[in-house]
């Protein structure tokens, strides 16, 4: 059994980790930390876990995280990098759901997250936790920095176009028009996510710049092996969970005869958590709710020179906790789907 610890288990990604790991046949939940809720049974905070999780929250200094095989950080940015050196020296592997180990350039990290990076040497060895792209590197990683929820949808939506060794689309004018439910903002009191503010409303934000843009650009350029240009506009929509990303790419004249539907199907043929839907499909966020599945539909309106790629995922599962468990499975040599076979819930 894999002894698992979770740092910061009181947020939405934390409770998702608990939900998934409680049903994982090879995971043993060993510790979950919260200084404020020290001593409180997890099931008292999250009644959905009654009968499934018997742990109580404990203050970090009591949690004996160094006895775990792997520790997940479902914490604000900056926490994982502060604790990483001690855990790694004890032989513990780390999966961080925040941004501490996503961006390889420390100056870029400091610009977008407003704090210095405290362990750049560990950052150098950290692996970006997008299994469909970095599976081999994840397998031997000591530290995995999970992608953000938006970047997961954008990178997996555009990867087949960029991974062909030559440009098929105009890679300097890619556009990502993305929508997220309010759980993406975290489990905290904030005016913009109050019911009276977010319900019956739809708005863009971060248009002048969003911290997920440099992360996504970094990932797409690694896939393509060359510079790319991306315009990313996120939106908040009045739903609890889910991401819908509409991606636009202009087809180059020499690529007009390519069957892009077949290209996507071939690229993801052996991926258990990416579903390339039949031609003409319109995936819905509810078709992936509470699951680790990401669904993609490829459109070419009027057989013109514009590709429209539709991508849906659950931001808390494939966009966060589920992807973390997927990475854990890879790191410990398990079936990648173990503990992640939940059927999406409907309605």
Automatic annotation (TrEMBL):
Catalytic residue positions: 149
EC number: 1.2.1.38
Keyword Mitochondrion: no
GO cellular component: cytoplasm
UniProtKB keywords: Amino-acid biosynthesis, Arginine biosynthesis, Cytoplasm, NADP, Oxidoreductase
Family, per entry: Belongs to the NAGSA dehydrogenase family. Type 1 subfamily.
PANTHER family found in the cross-reference section: N-ACETYL-GAMMA-GLUTAMYL-PHOSPHATE REDUCTASE, CHLOROPLASTIC-RELATED (PTHR32338:SF10), N-ACETYL-GAMMA-GLUTAMYL-PHOSPHATE REDUCTASE, CHLOROPLASTIC-RELATED-RELATED (PTHR32338)
Full protein name: N-acetyl-gamma-glutamyl-phosphate reductase
